[in-house]
Write the C-alpha cells for this entry.
Amino acid sequence: MQHSSLLEMDPESDRIRRVLSFARENLSTSLSVERLADQANLSVRQFSRAFMEATGTTPAKAIERLRAEVARPRVEDGRESLEAIAHDVGFTDPERMRQSFTRVFGHAPQAMRRAARAVDAEAISQQEV
C-alpha cells in the first residue's frame, strides 16, 4: 500500500489532531470547514489558520486527499463500483472522485483500476511460468 502522509499525520496541535481523527472516522459525511472548526472549538477563521500552520495545507485539500487515499486501494481492487466507493468515502459523485484522483494522483480512477489489473495479470502470468 502506498504511503500516506495525511493518513498518518500527527500534528503537534491536539485540536488539529482531534479534527483529523474525526475526519478519518467520518469521511462519508459532510466535512465542511464549519463542522471541522466546531470539532476544534475554534472559529472558522482561527481553525483555517491553525490547520494550515499545523499541516501545511487547507482543510478542504486535506479532506480531499484523505478521501482519495482511502478510496485508492478499493478502486485498484476492482471489486466495487466506482459509484459505491465514491459514496462510501464522501465524494458527492463519481465525477467528483475522478477530479480529485486526477488532482491528487495524476490519474483518473478508471486508469488506476486498469493499471492495477494489468499488474495483477502480469503477476499471474509470471507465476504460471
